[in-house]
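pls design
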């Protein structure tokens, strides 16, 4: 059995009120010399609690923490004491006297020696944050979040920690619309990832979603061509086999737009795409003292 440490990251909107909300969890695995950081993709609860709450700013901070943790994983010694771990938090993440974001007290736990740190971190994340992201029920349609979860799982199966190198919640603005993408990464083009699940109730819904997606792809085309962008759409097919012809038609509709894009269906195609993204991210990003992960020149 191995001892691990973890701390909950808390958001304090007003120190005067003294209210705290968990927004992330950091775990340390001393025997593996590894850190794992997890946080939700959305904070609906905080938006409802505080009118002046800035979700974008909080996500920017958390994404920065994730990148610092990813960098630290390349520098850790085989063992790391509780004192070293605590010092890393106050030196690299949040000072002890911080007000808005604070790490709670260090907690010790015991895990099996052969447990995978990523899986353990996912389990602790689910324990503390399941209420903010409820698990899908049996028989439930595959939502867009299903595709994002599979993308992350495939990505980190190929390279643990590489998920932290992705940019998150990136917006692309055009004259007529603004579209938010969940992730972005570069490999010669700026690639923007968005899930589009067609596991819907009927053929009409499938058709409507295809037309809507085609519409914003069309509106973003001039911006994409000018900025050397590519839109990577993760697609889920209907569970109901009777809707597969409607799904095929939806793919035709999306293929018809001239916007630079990739259509990546769940399963083998998504796994291959995730592997290529993981490999490129690891090869072409490196720790830099002036920029946490500076992009290296293309060969």
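designed seq:
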């Amino acid at each position: 059995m191995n001892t691990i440490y973890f701390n909950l990251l808390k958001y304090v909107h007003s120190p005067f009120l003294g209210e705290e909300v968990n927004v992330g969890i950091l775990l340390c695995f001393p025997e593996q010399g590894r850190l794992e950081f997890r946080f939700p993709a959305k904070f609906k609860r905080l938006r409802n609690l505080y009118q002046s709450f800035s979700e974008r700013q909080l996500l920017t901070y958390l994404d920065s923490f994730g990148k610092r943790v990813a960098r630290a994983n390349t520098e850790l010694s085989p063992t790391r004491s509780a004192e070293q771990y605590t010092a890393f938090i106050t030196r690299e993440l949040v000072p002890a006297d911080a007000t808005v974001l604070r790490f709670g007290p260090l907690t010790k736990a015991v895990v099996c020696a052969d447990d995978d740190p990523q899986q353990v971190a996912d389990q602790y994340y689910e324990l503390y944050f399941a209420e903010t992201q409820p698990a899908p029920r049996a028989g439930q349609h595959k939502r867009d979040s299903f595709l994002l979860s599979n993308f992350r799982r495939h990505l980190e199966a190929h390279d643990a920690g590489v998920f932290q190198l992705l940019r998150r919640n990136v917006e692309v603005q055009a004259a007529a619309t603004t579209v938010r993408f969940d992730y972005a990464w570069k490999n010669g083009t700026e690639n923007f990832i968005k899930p589009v699940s067609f596991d819907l109730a009927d053929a009409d819904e499938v058709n409507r979603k295809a037309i809507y997606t085609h519409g914003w792809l069309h509106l973003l085309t001039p911006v994409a061509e000018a900025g050397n962008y590519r839109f990577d759409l993760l697609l889920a097919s209907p569970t109901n086999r009777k809707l597969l012809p409607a799904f095929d038609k939806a793919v035709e509709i999306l293929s018809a737009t001239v916007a630079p894009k990739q259509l990546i269906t769940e399963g083998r195609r998504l796994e291959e795409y995730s592997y290529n993204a993981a490999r490129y991210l690891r090869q072409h990003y490196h720790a830099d003292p002036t920029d946490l992960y500076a992009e290296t020149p293309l060969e």
